[in-house]
Amino acid sequence: MSGACQDRRSRWQEIQKGLQFIQSTLPFPGSQEQYEVFIKDLVWNLFGEGNDVFKEGEWTKSIEMYTEALSIADYADSEEICVPTGLLEKLYANRAAAYLNVGLYDQALEDCEKALHLNEGNYKALYRKAKSLKEMGRHQEAYETVAKCSLAVPQDPSVTQLTQDLAKILGLKIRKAYVRSKVCVFQTLITLTLLQAYILSSFFLIQLNNKESPMGMAVGMPEVKGLPAAVDLAKNPLAETHEFKQACSICYVKTGPGVLDYTLHTEEHKCKKDALLGRIKHSPDKTWKLIRPRPTKTQYVGPYYICKEVAVGKECLYPGHCTFAYCQEEIDVWTLERKGFISRELLFDPFGPNSNVRLTVPKILQEHHGIFMFLCGVCFDHKPRIISKTNKDDPSLCSHPVTKHDFEDHKCLVHILKENTVRYSKIRPLSPQCQLDLCRHEVRYGCVREDDCFYAHSLIELKVWMMQHELGITHESIVQEAKKFWNATASLQGVQQLSSAQRRFGPPNLKMMFVCGQCWRNGQLSEADKNKKYCSAKARHTWAKDRRVVLVSSHERKKWTTVRPLPTKKPIPSQFEICMHVTAGKKCQYIGNCTFAHSVEERDLWTYMKENNIPDMDQLYEQWLQSQKPGWGEETSSNSIRENGKQIHMPTDYAEEVAGNHCWLCGKNCNSEKQWQQHITSEKHKDRVFNSEDDQNCWQYRFPTGTFKVCERFLKGTCTEDDFCKLAHGDQELKEWMERREFLLMKLAKAKKDHLIAPNDNDFGKYSFLLKDIK
């Protein structure tokens, strides 16, 4: 073991011993002077450990070390022990750097301010403050800060680059510094004074030229025609610490049985570039690691960990389905992806000269299934949201049932995705102020600035902006291109279906039909209407999968008989038998759960479904409908098709005229005020307000109990309640509880602003502790 490793191991042991001691109530076995040295050494050790793990790229761990050191410094102050100001200054400045790397810009800015309060000349804190302000969209403040930093370290390349980036955004002229051959102290001072005067005058002119901005918006951004839409902001946040490369199965070849046993070949070939590789820049391991797509079919919201089999050099037990990471590079990318701070498409600098990324409308729609179309912007921005397109009787107006808005003047481009629910994503017009990056507030709890925000509020909006920036395409052209794409796709699908059309479907001895279940219970035989939206009876019942039944008739009996769904009991028997109760002429006592057939016709249809691999009545209906006429499947009847097993819908499927409100959280349309009130007061909806599927946050500790206080017994090591304890188990858990409370309060405020919570509704179940005061 090397000396450095040995020293670090010894330091870590000292940290563990020190923390264990100060968490106890034991008296210190020494003098007050020795106790002060002990406390200060502990803080220095934590500072050193934080620096080492930071260099290794473990930023979260470094934040923990710096935070622990600062907490002990606060504790020391209560014990009348003064930790050196210089050390506190470094702790705040270094923790700010770690916060920057994980995308927590608010916390980074707060730490920079604390470091500058201790030493206003700390140029590292100034630089990191400027970076934080830039990422938060406060470009003028960032420029003012980096100008001070530039005066302190004029030759630092990072400071120079940041200054030029901000100057470009603000529309200022970029100039290089004048370097003199002979340095005169007096003249240097004059030069610095003039430079400072120039900077201040520039700020003064910017202030005069700018109009007053809404509260919370970035100021100091005059409209400059021809200014690129902040291309420099599209850089990936891991650029300083990671390298990324695209590859394919030809150049990235598996060389062993392990999940990491791959080798990258650099021979020239036509690379598909369908795989993402990454590696940490300063790591001794220079091999390229495969970074798989982030697992999304899981409700897990905690931190990512490396698969325990892979960590010890064994083979993964679930290759292809493992939701654990295989390497640190995967953890770093997945963590930022889930928080919404990074997009895989931005890891390759889409604006670079060698980039092969060229976004088009078909490419976007192939990845993000759905359609682009125009909706009434006034209705869409209404609180709560109302979905309305053009009026059928007068296309110049919207289809709002009461207020008919001028559609052409107020239309907005919307991407509409219909899966289990309908999801609408507004695409705002691209302007010079737009930043080609995701809004970190929107992906967490909803951006309060809404349309005034310069950042993209969805990945689809970001990609459309990038496409518009590259191609200059208008919203009207995007809608037309989308229609052409789906028309071409539907035509191709129709050709493919011709070969299998008009074939005999079902058992040869049976006739089959699908009828409305409500009508059938009343003795009526009602099939679907032409559009497959309602049944053909006067009552016009909704033609939904849970309201239709299948009827069969044999050549022998010539009587229509209902058939129940195929039994789901596993394994399915090799052959179906008739129920003995039915055979005896009696009524089956287990009619709801009986897995035996209740008629010969039911047995024959079940056998046919099993032999043809038809698992349920929905697929039976689709295949039967296809056999009646080409392209008549339930989905294709409304101009939708399937691609790679995924359901794709056409423009006519979307944005039906809605008389009531639309809940963007749940994707539900309500056709009356009563139905809307029932929906927003339902437990499922209120739980969705606080814990949506798109929640990008990960929490390390227990769910808050509402009692925001540290358990004294836990500190003494005598708490026996474990997870059932109502108090926080340590300062870190308490801190997370406070942060989590603030986060959930923001989500609640956003929901109330959008009228998704009834004004007098205070019952939020396990989240009701939010309304309590913190003691």
UniProtKB/TrEMBL annotation:
Keyword Zinc-finger: yes
Keyword tags: Membrane, Metal-binding, TPR repeat, Transmembrane, Transmembrane helix, Zinc, Zinc-finger
ZnF (C3H1-type) ranges: 438-460, 573-601, 705-732
GO MF annotations in UniProt: miRNA binding; zinc ion binding
Domain C3H1-type: 438-460, 573-601, 705-732
GO terms of biological process kind: miRNA processing
Statement: the UniProt record of this protein carries the keyword Transcription regulation: no
Membrane-crossing segments per the record: 183-206
InterPro entries in the cross-refs: TPR-like_helical_dom_sf, TPR_rpt, ZC3H7A/B, Znf_C2H2_jaz, Znf_C2H2_sf, Znf_CCCH, Znf_CCCH_sf
Pfam families for this protein: TPR_19, zf-C2H2_jaz
TPR repeat placement: 89-122
Signal peptide: none
Protein name listed in UniProt: Zinc finger CCCH-type containing 7A
The encoding gene: ZC3H7A
